[in-house]
Amino acid sequence: MFALYRFALILAAAAYVTTSSASPPLPDDGYPTGATTPEGAVCDYARALILRDVTLFERVVLPPFGSGESRVQYENYLTEMKFAISEENKHPTDQRHQEISRVFAARSLSKPNLTSYIRATFNFADVKFVDIAVVGISKMRIPVIKDNTGQWRVHPAPEIHPSLFDGLDRESPSTEEVMRKGARPAQPLGLSGVYKVEHENGYLSIRFDGDRCFLSGGPPGKFVENVETKCLRKENLLYIGPPVAVTKTEQMTRNVWVAYTIVDDRLESSHVEDMDNGEVFYKERNKQPQIILKKQLP
Fold first, then answer.
1. Predicted pLDDT of residue 285
2. Do the Cβ atoms of 31 and 25 come closer than 8 Å?
3. Contact 132, 12 (CB under 8 A)
4. What's the pTM?
5. What is the rounded CA–CA span in Å between residue 143 and residue 131?
């Protein structure tokens, strides 16, 4: 799993075009930066890969430590990563722009006595992890170590030192989001009442109450009634999140929302979008809206 995250980020690095061999400036994206916080270290790590910046990569990752085979493996990994980033920087591509889209607050791992273990074994001060999403990539879980100088460093290959990150992939998804500095407040929905469409297998309705949204309807066997869900407006697009899963088996593995175009008294289906990485589905199919909800009379 962690190897998948790692190579996904390597591929993402190819999506940002730069022609200078010097380290480009960090983007003014409003997210944390610097080694004084775990979130800042992880954001800088993501920027190093997006910008294909070997110098920044070297600055944010944890230097080789310990001894024996694990140290050799980690040294080799860092060398391979720097080579891969340098090679990608030689081949500009026309892939879509990459940027940080969501950052979640750092969390400690649940395993008891882990901090005491890393202090006694490696003289590290703390260990945490940060969930982060980059446009074009799924949400990633990045471990960070606080060294004995008080600086946070990213460990990009946790599988090499599994004892430091025991249970990392079993931790629950993060929910406390770090807001971007200067982020705009959410756009008001500007909708009220009930929008509804009927079809041969049932119906779908969306009720708006201020900036809250409630779903009813659905196909047989998955019917819901007046269930609140997340909603977000961007210009003339309305994004509706999925209802909260009732059982563990129904939980969605991707944060996909349905987008509707607001047209007068109608909501016309536009596409489905992964809100963590910006991937769009069914855009071509919806050139002619497949679902049209009409506002109901009071």
1. 63
2. no
3. no
4. 0.64
5. 9
Phi, psi dihedrals of residue 273, rounded to the nearest 5°? -135, 135
CB atoms near residue 280 (< 10 Å)? 12
Higher per-residue confidence, 186 vs 261: 261
Cα–Cα dist 40/137, whole Å:
19
Secondary structure class of 171 (helix, strand, coil): coil
Question: Tokens 């980059």 sit at which residue?
Answer: 134
Are residues 186 and 158 in contact, defined by beta-carbon separation less than 8 angstroms?
A: no
Structure tokens at 130: 């940060």
Residues belonging to the chain:
298
Report the distance separating Cα 264 and Cα 205, nearest Å: 17
* Domain locations in the chain as residue ranges: 2-170, 193-295
Cα separation, 26 vs 41, in Å, equals 13
Question: Other CB atoms closer than 10 Å to residue 204's CB: what's the count?
Answer: 19
pLDDT of residue 149: 95
